[in-house]
Amino acid sequence: MEELLKRLEQMFDEKEIDLTKILSFKNKFLQENIKGLKIDNYIGDYPTFMEPVILGDKVKIGDDVLIGPRVYIGKNTEIDDYAEISNSILFNNIKIGKNFKLDNCLILKDSKLNFNNFSIENCILKGNAESREELEIIKL
Length: 140
What we know:
Blueprint: H1 2-11, H2 19-33, E1 37-38, E2 42-44, E3 48-49, E4 53-55, E5 59-61, E6 66-67, E7 71-73, E8 78-79, E9 84-86, E10 88-90, E11 95-96, E12 100-107, E13 112-113, E14 118-126, E15 128-129, E16 136-139
Parallel strand pairs: 1-4, 2-5, 3-6, 4-7, 5-8, 6-9, 7-10, 8-11, 9-12, 10-12, 11-13, 12-14, 13-15
Antiparallel strand pairs: 14-16
Helix pairs in contact: 1-2
């Protein structure tokens, strides 16, 4: 699985980003590799998981968070309170603020979304942002 995630990350480093190829790869990855529930090493109080969901190590989850179905969250990621995440991949070292709703999204590694009240679907998100306007958003 790690090798597939690295391949997906490499697609963002190409000179010309092929969104169709990325979306196809993401969907195939979620359908074929995200099965069951692997939530062994998270920090948080009683999030709700809808299978299938896979969490990396040291994922910190806030209060009243809903994750799934078909979600992969990489290691050292922090999800603040009241988030809803479905059909998405969050790479390693991500931080998202309170009251986020993400559907069919990719958040690239080391992105810090340090703001609250955000809802989006069908996109790629990256950057260190204190507001929606500072965030790099690529629609799928």
